[in-house]
Structures are given as structure tokens and as C-alpha cells.
Amino acid sequence: MLDVLPQMPEDSILGLSSACRSDPSPNKIDLTVGIYMNEEGVCPVFDAVRLAQQSLVAEETTKAYMAPAGDAAFNQGLQRLVLGSGSAALADARVSSIQTPGGCGALRIGAEIINAAAPGARVWVSDPTWPVHIPLLGSVGLRFETYRYYEPVSHGVNFDGMVEDLGRAGRGDVVLLHGCCHNPCGADLTLEQWSVIADMAERQGFMPFVDIAYQGLGDGLEQDVAGLRLLVERLPEVIIAASCSKNMGLYRERTGAALFVSSSAENARALLSQAQVAARRIYSMPPAHGALLAGRVLADAELKTNWEDELQAMCWRINGLRTSLVSKLEQNTDRDFGFIEREKGMFSFLGLTRAEAIALREKHSIYMLESSRINVAGVNGANIDYLAEAVGAVLRG
Ligand code: PMP
Questions:
Q1: Whose CA is nearest to atom 4 of ligand 1?
Q2: Which of these three, 245, 271, 299, is where a domain ends?
Q3: 296 C-alpha to ligand 1 centroid (Å)
Q4: Ligand 1 in contact with 245 (CB < 6 A)?
Q5: Domain that holds residue 356
Q6: How large is the ipTM?
Q7: pLDDT, tens digit, for every residue of 132-181?
Q8: Pairing of strands 207-212, 174-178
Q9: Residues 87, 184: one domain?
Q10: Rounded CA gap, 51 and 87, in Å?
Q11: Is 160 a catalytic residue?
Q12: Known catalytic residue at 246
């Protein structure tokens, strides 16, 4: 029976990263996969997470299942982190959340809830968006419409195009927004632009679904959720998919949450019960380890400060790399790369053609996506000159 199934092609991003690992060149650079890497090219464990882990391992008395909604300290800590401790929606108990296996699990549970409320609803996604959004939401039965977002010539957001396209979104539609650090393009909305989207949602009745996978890696923990919080203040319903993969370095522990901001406390409770039933259909209970660690970090003032400081240092390093990359690239080419400094988070398109991205890989062992999306955190003091010189060489042809 099973032999009818053909071999599937390798995931394009993971395939490039594994090709880089087997490349013998001593100069090779992996700018493909979205993980934070430090100056030594290592994806580190946060100090606060390591400390929380030591106490958890010493104190843990059971491996019995988690509650279906996950760890209470984690859910409470994450709600405050994302929405702010002064959030009116939190004070009114209009928010519920379920711990999920990573941000992917949160996106999936969010999609299940949307589809339960409005089967086959239309979800508007940015052009481009993170490619995994499509199978994650689409396999539930949701349908897609695209709104214009990144403009390759100006290397920025085509906000007029976005507004024009979203002008066609109405009641019963969902608009998927990247909370910060847009993946793949790094171009984010300004607060004024978030406000325009909130106006449109109020007027037209569509519901925002905000994917926040990089809080703290753009400008800072508070700044990166200012747009999202504005939506929550103004609108009766918002779904949020949050991830602790990047900002707590918990990637493999699969730690995230789906948050439901609703029009009443009663409906928030109903949505949580629906989310638990949806999770039961797919994987039953969430994994424990990562959320127990994150819950401890968020609940302990000393660990939290330690974590915030380390995260802020990562954020500054990425922004410093963006500045250095612009000046090194401009020393080696006659192009304006200033847009890299205006973009946020781990990703930017370099604005190269597919052929140029392939030439960088084949001639210089520099691995980036063929769209020329790079993981800025893969750049470091030891490889930045080689990278900029190679881009210069490829652009000269
Ligand atoms: N959304 C976006 C835009 C992402 O880039 C990622 C991670 N690459 C996620 C969600 C989910 O990440 P995870 O499931 O690892 O938490």
C-alpha cells in the first residue's frame, strides 16, 4: 500500500544548509537557516535558560502529562510579555492562551480555530511571506489571498499596494501579519501604518492573525510589539501566534503559544476549550521542557533581567552587523545597500538575482536562499570581508 508514495524533494532551506555543511571550503558561510548565531558561529543557550534548566532538573518530580492548555506560569508570563502587563484586554480577562509546540503549533491551532468558526475562510498573506505559512494554514482548509507587501526596487514596504489589496478584505476574512522582523524581507510596518491597518480592520471587519516569532530581535521587547498591541487595544478579536524559539533560544524544545484576544471573557474561555479540542485531535498535550524553562525565566525577576540583557545584546549585535554590512558592501560595489540598515531582525534580501545567488554559492561557498535572503546573524567579524568581496566580484560579473 505505501509503495505508491514517491520520494519528496528536500526542503529547499534545509537542503542548502546541509549542502553547506558538506562543502569542504574553509571560507564557506551559511546564511540560510533562521537561527541566531553568535560571533563564533554558534547558536547559544541563554544563560538564564541554562540556570532555569539546572533548577528544573534538580526539582522536577514527575514526567506526567502537562495540562492540555500547558504550563500556567508560561501562559501567564507570555501573555504579559506579548500584550504588556497593563493590557486592558488582560485586565478584562478577554485573553486566553494555549501552550503549543513552537510558533508553528500556534499557527496551526490558530488556523484550526479560524476554520471551526468560518470553514474555508480567506486568509490574506503578504507577498512574500514565510513559505511554511501556506501548508500550515492551508492543510486545515483555509484559503489564501495575497496582498502586496515588499517592493524589490525600493527595498521597502509597498504600503499603498498593501492598503489597496486589503481594501478587498471584509468581515469573515483573516489578515495574517508579521508582528515584527518580517520573514523573509525584514521590512516592517511603522506604527502609523499599523494604525491604518487597525482603522481598516475596524471599518471592514476583518480579523488580524499576528505571527510574532522574533519579539526582541528587531529593536527591543517592547518596541517590537507596539504595532500588535495597538491592534489589540482597538479591535475586539485578534489571534496571536507567539514563539520562544528565537528570543529564548528554545528552538528544539518547541515552545510557543496561541493567544486569543476576544470580545468577552466568556468567549475567551470558549476559544480555549476549542483550542484544547483541536490540540487533542492533533497531538494531545504540549511538550513540557521548554515551556517550564520559559515560565521560570519569565516569573523570576533576576532570571528575567538576565534574559532581557542577553536578548538586547543579541539585538544590538544584529543591528551592528547590519550597519557594518552596508559599509563593507558599499566599499566593494557601486550599489546602495542602505536598505539593509533600515530592515529589522534576522533577515534581508540582498537584492541579487537568482543567478548571482547561485554564483556566490558555486564560486565562493556562500550559501543564501536563491531569492538572496540572508540570515544576518550568520555574518561575523571573521567572514564579513570575504562575504562583501565575493558579492563585489559576482556583481562585477
Ligand atoms: N513564523 C515565522 C515567520 C518564522 O520565521 C518561524 C520560524 N522560522 C515561525 C513562525 C515558527 O517557529 P517555531 O515553530 O520554530 O517556533
A1: 213
A2: 299
A3: 22
A4: yes
A5: 2-44+304-396
A6: 0.99
A7: 999 999 999 999 999 999 999 999 999 999 999 999 999 999 999 999 99
A8: parallel
A9: yes
A10: 29
A11: no
A12: yes
